[in-house]
Amino acid sequence: MSIRKLAATAANLLWVLFAAQAIARIFVDLPYNYWLGWLPVLAAVAIGVALRRTDESRDPATRPDPVAVDPPVVGTWSALNSPADKVPSHGTHALAQTYAIDVVAESDKHPRPRFAPLWPVVRRNGDFPAFGAPLLAVADATVVHAEDGQRDHLSRNSLPALPYFLLVEGVFRSLGGPRRIIGNHIVLDLGNGTYAMYAHLRRGSLQVRPGDRVAAGQPLARCGNSGNSTEPHLHFQLMDGPDPRTAGGVPFTWRGIGVPKSGDIFAAEPVVYSA
Q1: CA dist 17 to 38, 113, 169, 178, Å?
Q2: Residues with Cβ within 8 Å of residue 209, at least 6 apart in sequence
Q3: Any idea what DSSP says for residue 110?
Q4: Domain map of the chain by residue range?
Q5: pLDDT tens by residue, 223-263
Q6: Residues 202-230: pLDDT tens digits?
Q7: How far is residue 227's CA from residue 147's CA, in Å, rounded to a whole number?
Q8: What is the pLDDT of residues 120-179, one digit of tens each?
Q9: Which terminus of the chain has a lower count of CB atoms within 10 Å, N or C?
Q10: Rounded to whole angstroms, what are the CA distances from 79 to 64, 137, 161, 165, 231?
C-alpha cells in the first residue's frame, strides 16, 4: 500500500474515531478531557491539508497531453465543472479529479429541472432526463472495477436542500470513504497507463463486470444519482491508475466534441460497435 493511500486511510479512521467518541459521550463519561476529543479532527484535517498541498505542488509543465476518446454519452447534454474553464475542474486534485467533467442531459420533450430557490426542496430522479440514460465505453477497454449497490437519492438542487447536502450528507460520506463520495462507478483500463472512471451510476444498472472486455460505444451502465451528487448526472474522468485514491488526473478530449465548457450544450453521436 502506498504512503498516500495509508495517509488517506488514517484520515478516514480519525474521522470515524471522532464520530464514535461523540456518540459514546452521550451515554457515558469518557475518561479524558472534553477538548482532547477534538484531537482526531485536528489530525485528520492536517493530513488532508498535507495531501492537498502534495497534489497542488505538481508542476503544470509536466501535464500530459490530452487523451482522445469517444464521448461516454449519446444525445444532447450540457457540461458542468469543466476543465475547459479551470484546473482542477472540481476545485481539488483529490480522487484524481483534476480534469474531471460533469454532464447532464438536456431534452426539449423532458426539460431538465433548474435550481430551485425555495420549492420544491427535492425532486424525484425521474424528473431529470439524465436518469437512466445509457453510458458508453469511450474506447476498447477492460473493466477493472464495477459496482452499483448504492441507492439513488432524491435531488438536492434547491437552496433549502444544499445545507443538508453539504453539512450532513457530505460529512457522513467523507466518513464512509471515497466510494461513498463517488457512488456507484466503473473503472476501465484503456491501455497505455490510462483509466476512465464513470461515477454516480444508477443502482442495479451495470451491464458489465470486472474482467470483461468492452468495445468503444458499448453500453456499460446507466446514469444515476448515487454518491455525492445533487442531481442525476455523469461524472467522467481519466486517470493514470485504476484507484482514484492514489491516481493522478489525465486530460481528455472527446472525438468530434473536444472539451465543452461549463454551460455548453453539445450533441454526442452514437458510436457503432461490434458486440
Answers
A1: 10, 40, 18, 17
A2: 143, 146
A3: S
A4: 3-57, 62-268
A5: 999 999 989 999 999 999 999 988 999 999 999 999 999 99
A6: 999 999 999 999 999 999 999 999 999 98
A7: 12
A8: 888 899 999 999 999 999 999 999 999 999 999 988 887 877 776 676 776 777 777 788
A9: C
A10: 22, 18, 22, 21, 13
3-state class of 59 per DSSP? coil
With contact defined as beta carbons under 8 Å apart, do 217 and 135 qualify? no
Distances (CA, A) of 100 to 51, 75, 222: 19, 20, 18
Nearest to 116 by CA among 165, 156, 164: 156
Cβ atoms of 183 and 56 closer than 8 Å: no
Residue 54 has pLDDT above 60, yes or no: no
* Distance of alpha carbon 45 from alpha carbon 48, whole angstroms: 5
Q: What's the confidence (pLDDT) of residue 57?
A: 47
pTM: 0.80
Q: Tell me which residue of 94, 196, 184, 66 sits closest to 144, measured CA to CA.
A: 196
Neighbouring residues of 66: CB distance < 8 A, sequence distance ≥ 6: 251, 252, 253, 259
Look up the CATH architecture of domain 62-268.
Distorted Sandwich (2.70)
Grid coordinates standing for 253? 478530449
Query: For residue 78, which phi and psi values (nearest 5 degrees)?
Result: -125, 155
* Cα–Cα distance for residue pair 272/156, rounded to 1 Å: 35
pLDDT (tens digit per residue) in 187-203: 999 999 999 999 999 99
Output the CA–CA distances (angstroms, integers) from residue 153 to 100, 112, 146, 159, 180, in the order listed.
22, 17, 19, 17, 12
